[in-house]
Amino acid sequence: MIPLVDLRAQYHSIKDEIDEAVSQVIESGQFILGPNVKALEKEIAAYCGTDHAVGVGSGTEALHLSLLALGIGEGDEVITTPFTFVATAEAISQTGARPVFVDIDPSTYNIDASQIAEKIIPRTKAILPVHLYGQPADMEEIMAIARKNDLLVVEDCAQAIGAEYRGRKVGSLGDAGCLSFFPSKNLGGYGDGGMVVTDNAETAEKLRMLRTHGSLRKYYHSLLGFNSRLDEIQAAVLRVKLKYVDQWNGARQGKAEIYNRLIAELPLARPAVSPERTHVYNQYTIRVAERDLLQESLGRNGISTAIYYPLPLHLQMVYENLGYSVGSLPGSERGSREVLSLPMYPELEDSQVEHIVDVIGSVLLGTH
Ligand SMILES: *Cc1c(COP(=O)(O)O)cnc(C)c1O
After folding, report:
1. Which residue out of 85, 90, 161 has the highest number of ligand 1 atoms within 8 Å of its CB and is therefore the one to mutate?
2. Residue numbers of the chain with a pLDDT score lower than 50
3. Any atom of ligand 1 within 6 Å of the Cβ of 156
4. Is the four-CA dihedral 249, 250, 251, 252 of positive or negative sign?
């Protein structure tokens, strides 16, 4: 069996450090918003190249609270991609604003920046690009459109921590960047967690209030907030893991290179990396017309795969009210029928990649 991700392999490579960090937290008796969260916020801000970082309960909450902190709400529109995890659009809707979907660039699966301008109306307040699978979206074009139209930009970096656009880390390019520490992300905790990075001190302060019941001073509440905090055990684990994230991202890139080289001769599309950016391969995603057949055959051969995502957001039942229909956003719809994510994690062995590609080849070339 080759799993899609193997979190145990990573744990075993740093077990002593993790166990020590976790038991220190338990001994300290301080579990919520303590010294580890504070230290992790400093370390992540330095890593991403921003002035501030605010730990929150999840990546979803990082998106939701940063939109709120930036003043987005009822009556506003936010432009985003339909080809993403539901949390991206859910966060917009939870503020009372309306998500407006723009189709993807079929080669990178990221939002097609050239289609954004035509969707801007007076109610449009922000653009929410997603750096899907670990590859930065076209941030130069997106930032130019935003500046020209006085829009905010919130980056969904859930799959892309450490990825760079023109030498700058994702999260530091827009007005706020949202990280997820869900276990399967490139920097994953052992539970839920998230963080917002920003250069804006006011936004950071607002986030610190929103995450803990609208207060900065205990039992004095100046606005309506939430309970959305990062806990000390997650922060302690993440501080250990942050030291390795570049090494692990490098290992992912190494596996992607092997896949790319071996897959080159096969009738399928490899991940395309656009110029001036690095891809950190949270997912290694191919595109193939006979996707369902291939997935089934790989499964029969003990190789796990996944489809991110089988139904684009504009066609989800929850968004029926937005008025999209089949054919509205054909690039995303075709993507949903053809993408397949293959096993990808830093500890994946080269020989396993070779075996996976062998099986793909025998399925697609009909020798299987
Ligand atoms: C994982 C993910 C999120 C949500 O993060 P959680 O920490 O699971 O809440 C949001 N957007 C994208 C693109 C993701 O992959």
Report:
1. 85
2. none
3. yes
4. positive
